[in-house]
Each structure stands twice: as structure tokens, then as C-alpha cells.
Amino acid sequence: MLQNIDIHELNALMERDETAKRLITQMLTDHQMLISTISHEIRNPLTLVSSSLQLIESEHPEVKDFYGWTQTMEDVDFMRQLLEELSSFNNGSTVRPSCFSMEQLLKNIAISFAISLNEQESAIEFSSKIAPDLGDFVGDKLKLEEVLLNLLRNAKDAIEGAGSIFLSATRLEDSLQIEVKDTGCGIPDEHLQSIFEPFRTYKPNGTGLGLALSQQIITAHGGSLSVESQEGKGSTFSIILPIALLTTDYRPSV
Ligand SMILES: Nc1ncnc2c1ncn2[C@@H]1O[C@H](COP(=O)(O)OP(=O)(O)OP(=O)(O)O)[C@@H](O)[C@H]1O
Ligand SMILES: [Mg+2]
């Protein structure tokens, strides 16, 4: 896996040499295609296996009592989720921009997240404060939504029993600041550097791609994703997104 430093060296090499630039770009595209193809090819039969297992379970409910059945269902679901995240991670740097209202997007996310907590009868208190002057934003709406959902899901996972999550968004001079703050378990100092690495997880069923993918998406928007955390007290993930210059090519879609 390429580290940040390798990517800087690659970029420098590409700026110096046109042939190297063409070859490296081609290699990176091939590499992405290969990952996409493999995950796609594995996902198809896996979906069939998953449907067959569900059919077996609905026609023979007694299988649920069979030793290992629940674990098998969970494992299949985990593989499906892993392949989905791998495929998103592979495409994380590709931004499909449109112009949309950031205030509306964040409000929609806040409503869906609050509903999902309610449905799970969770003891987590969720609140949000979204400034009304965020304005129109040019970026990849679906991907930014994915980032917010990743951060909110992580915040929820970090809270055992009762606690609170706060989503806020404010407009700075030439950027937007979006924060997800939780009163969960916090992150030990020795993990703070590594949690953004792909496949780094400290959860029994995590894939460790959520933060790596989120950082990749925010970087592709020219922004930054950072964290402040205190073990036992909670964490705050902060996104800074530069406000791109609006052009007439983009019309608000919400
Ligand atoms: N809000 C948080 N509070 C405490 N720890 C966190 C928080 N967010 C992330 N972490 C830590 O960072 C690790 C990496 O997070 P990341 O979202 O990348 O993967 P994950 O949640 O483990 O798996 P998934 O790929 O399913 O999201 C987590 O396993 C967890 O230990
Ligand atoms: Mg996660």
C-alpha cells in the first residue's frame, strides 16, 4: 500500500517527467480497475450465496438453531460489507461534483440519523446545530454524505449505553467546518496516528476502511479531516472543506 510520502515522491516524479507521468497514470488506472473487477466478481456469487441462505432460513426456520448458522450469516454479511467498502475506497478520489445546499444535506443526514437511533431504541442523545449561512457548495454530494455517515456511525459505536453525539456546521471565511463530537470511549494516544490507515480497526466486526475512505474523500475535495480525542471522555472529528468557486456549470440540485 502506498504511504503519503511515496505519493509525494510519485507526484514530484510525474511533474518532472511527462513519460513517467503517462506510465504512472496508466498503472494507477489499471490498478484501480483490477481492484474494482475483483471486488465486483466476488460480490456477484456472494450475493447469490447470501440470497440462498436467506431462502433456506425462511423455508426451514429450524436452521437458526443449528450450531454455526448465525455466525455463517454474519460472516457472509461482513464479506459483502467489506467488498462494498473496498470498492468505495478504490473510487474515493474520484469526485463527481454538483452544486447543492450543504445546510439541506446536513439537515437530511441529521434527520435520518436521529430516526435510526430512535428505531434502535438507543439511549444516545443526538443534537445538531447547522448554521443557516453555509450556502451552496460544489462537491460530490453522495461521497460527502458517506463521510458524515461514517463519522456518525463511529461516534455511535464509541458510546456504550448512554451518551451524546453533536453534529455542527459553521461557515468560516473561505471554508466550511463540520464537526462530529461524541462522549464515547475516546481514542488512546497510541492509536491516534494509525486510525486513518486502511484496514486499521479496533472493533471485532470493523473493516477499518471508514476513516481511510473518509479522509481520501475530504482530501479529494481539497480539505482536511482531523481528530481530537481524550480516552474515556470522547472524540471530535473535524472536517474543513474549502468553498470552491461556484461556476455557472453547476446548478443547485437540492
Ligand atoms: N468516534 C470514535 N470514538 C472512538 N474511537 C473511534 C472513533 N472513530 C473511530 N475510532 C477508532 O478508529 C478505528 C478506525 O475507524 P474506521 O471507521 O476506519 O473503521 P471501523 O469503524 O473500525 O470499521 P468500518 O470500516 O466498519 O468503519 C475504529 O476501529 C475505532 O477504534
Ligand atoms: Mg467506522
Structure description:
It is a single chain. By secondary structure, the protein is an alpha+beta fold. It has two domains: 4-90, no CATH class; 98-242, Histidine kinase-like ATPase, C-terminal domain (Heat Shock Protein 90, 2-Layer Sandwich). It is built from seven helices and seven strands, in the order H-H-H-E-H-E-E-H-E-E-H-H-E-E. Strands 2-4-5-7-6 form a five-stranded mixed beta sheet. The longest helix has 42 residues, at 18-59. The protein is globular and about 65 Å long. Bound molecules: adenosine-5'-triphosphate (ATP) and magnesium ion. Adenosine-5'-triphosphate binds next to helix 5 and helix 7.
